[in-house]
Amino acid sequence: MSASEESLSLTATDLRMATFRLARRLRRVRATDAISDAQLSVLATLRMHGRRTISALAEHERVTAPSMTSTVNGLEELGYLTRTPDEDDRRRVQVDITETGEAIVVETIHRRDAVLAGMLGELDYTEEELETLRAASALMRRVTDR
Questions:
Q1: How many CB atoms lie within 10 A of CB 94?
Q2: N or C: where does the chain have the smaller number of CB atoms within 10 Å of the terminal CB?
Q3: What is the C-alpha R_g of the chain?
Q4: Cα dihedral sign for 48, 54, 60, 66?
Q5: How far, in Å, CA of 81 to CA of 93, rounded?
């Protein structure tokens, strides 16, 4: 393994571990305990991308259509999304987030941001270190947005 490959491997390990631990801590913070992470992810997808079919949601979330149907059923029962027949193809159903569902996503984002800001504040970072974290965030988005 070349020095460059070894450096990439070590960086990948460090980044994976730090990201995993941070994500695990933040996943515990939600606006409601009535929904799972998978359900919250579906609501966030609908909030960000708008109305979708169940198959499009399943593809985006990388689950099967029957699994997505089950997730959508649960969220519909809670009043967090609605289903309407597709205007072009009545066999398809469009899924859309409700105001209540959107409020859950917004409140969860707010709570998670507040928890993370608190964690950062406890560590007494310098402005230079905070700028480094902002730059690292941008670099990480490049990896995830591919």
A1: 16
A2: C
A3: 19
A4: positive
A5: 12
Query: Concatenated DSSP letters for the chain?
Result: --HHHHHHHHHHHHHHHHHHHHHHHHHT--S-TTS-HHHHHHHHHHHHH--EEHHHHHHHHT--HHHHHHHHHHHHHTTSEEEEE-SS-TTSEEEEE-HHHHHHHHHHHHHHHHHHHHHHHHTT--HHHHHHHHHHHHHHHHHHT-
CA 62 – CA 48 distance, rounded (Å): 17
CA dihedral 70, 51, 62, 135 (to 10 degrees): -130
CB atoms within 10 A of CB 81: 25
CA gap 136, 19 in Å, rounded? 12
The torsion angle over the Cα atoms of residues 12, 14, 20 and 22, rounded to 10 degrees, is -130
Instruction: State pTM to two decimals.
Output: 0.81
